[in-house]
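Quick one, C-alpha cells below:
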C-alpha cells in the first residue's frame, strides 16, 4: 500500500536531550533537540473497536525516541534520524512508514541561527524474490537462501511458494531447476536489497561464469512495490519475467492479482498469455 493511503498519527515538537554533534563538547555536554514524527498506519480497527493494541501507542513511541536520543551518540543528526527511524520501524508492529524530523536549535555555527533540521521518510517495502537452483542439493540451497533472508533484520519473509521443477531457460544444456517465489517486506532500498541477495548467493558459492548457466542459488528481484527502475546494475520489474513460466507460476501462487506497473497486466493474465503461446 502506498504511503498516502495510510492513516497518520502526528507527534509534534517532542523535546529531548542528546549528546549529538561533530564537536567534542557537544558529545560531552549535550543539548536540547526537537523531534517531529508522522506515523503511518491503519487506525481503522482501533477506531472501530476502541482497542489501543490495534493502533500505535504514541506515548510509547515518544518515550522510545526520548530514550534512544539519550542513550546513543552520533556526530551527525542525519545518522541519528536514520538509525532511530530504523529502530522505530523494527520496534512497533503496526508502523508501516515514518516521516521523521530532528531539529537542532542553536546549532554552533558562529551565526545567529534559530535551528537546523534533518527530515527523512522511511518505511517497509514489499518485494517479490524469485528463487532457483540446479546444482547439488537444490532444495537445501534454496532453503539456505530463505533462512539467510529471515536472519536479516531488514527483511521479513511473509510468504513462500511451493517449489517446482522446471526446464533450463536460455542455455538448455544443463540440469533441471527447482524454482520458487518469496514475498517479503524490507527496509532496504532496491540496490541495498540487490547487494544482500548477491551476498547470500555468494555464501552458497554461486559462480557467474556463464550467462543463464548452472548455479547453486539464484535470487532475483521481480517486483519492488510498484517501482519502475532501469539502471546499469538493476532493472525492476524484472525485464524478462513475462516470458518465464518458472517465474510467473510460483508468483501467481502468492500474488496472482499483482499488476505489472509497465505492462498493466496482472500476474495471472501474463501467465495465461504465456501458456497460450505454447
Amino acid at each position: 500500500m502506498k504511503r498516502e493511503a495510510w492513516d497518520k498519527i502526528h507527534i509534534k515538537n517532542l523535546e529531548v536531550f542528546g549528546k549529538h554533534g561533530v564537536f567534542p563538547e557537544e558529545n560531552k555536554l549535550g543539548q536540547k533537540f526537537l523531534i517531529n514524527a508522522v506515523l503511518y498506519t491503519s487506525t481503522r480497527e482501533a477506531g472501530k473497536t476502541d482497542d489501543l493494541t490495534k493502533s500505535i501507542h504514541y506515548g510509547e513511541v515518544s518515550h522510545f525516541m526520548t530514550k534512544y536520543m539519550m542513550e546513543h551518540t552520533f556526530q551527525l543528526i542525519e545518522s541519528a534520524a536514520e538509525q532511530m527511524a530504523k529502530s522505530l520501524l523494527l520496534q512497533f508492529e503496526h508502523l508501516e512508514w515514518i516521516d521523521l524530523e530532528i531539529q537542532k536549535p542553536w546549532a554552533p555555527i558562529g551565526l545567529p541561527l534559530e535551528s537546523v533540521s534533518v527530515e527523512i521518510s522511511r518505511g517497509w517495502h514489499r518485494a517479490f524474490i524469485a528463487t532457483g537452483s540446479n546444482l547439488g542439493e537444490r532444495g537445501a540451497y534454496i532453503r539456505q537462501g530463505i533462512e539467510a533472508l529471515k536472519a536479516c533484520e531488514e527483511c521479513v519473509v511473509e510468504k513462500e511458494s511451493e517449489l517446482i521443477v522446471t526446464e533450463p531457460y536460455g542455455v538448455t544444456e544443463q540440469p533441471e531447476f527447482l524454482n520458487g517465489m518469496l514475498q517479503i517486506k524490507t527496509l532496504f532500498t532496491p540496490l541495498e536489497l540487490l547487494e544482500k541477495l548477491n551476498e547470500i548467493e555468494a555464501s552458497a558459492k554461486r559462480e557467474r561464469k556463464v550467462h543463464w548457466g548452472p548455479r547453486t542459488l539464484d535470487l532475483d528481484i521481480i517486483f519492488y512495490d510498484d517501482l519502475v527502475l532501469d539502471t546499469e546494475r538493476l532493472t525492476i520489474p524484472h525485464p524478462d519475467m513475462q516470458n518465464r513460466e518458472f517465474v510467473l507460476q510460483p508468483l501467481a501462487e502468492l500474488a496472482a492479482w499483482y499488476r505489472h506497473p509497465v505492462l498493466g497486466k496482472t500476474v495471472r493474465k501474463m501467465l495465461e498469455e504465456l501458456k497460450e503461446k505454447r
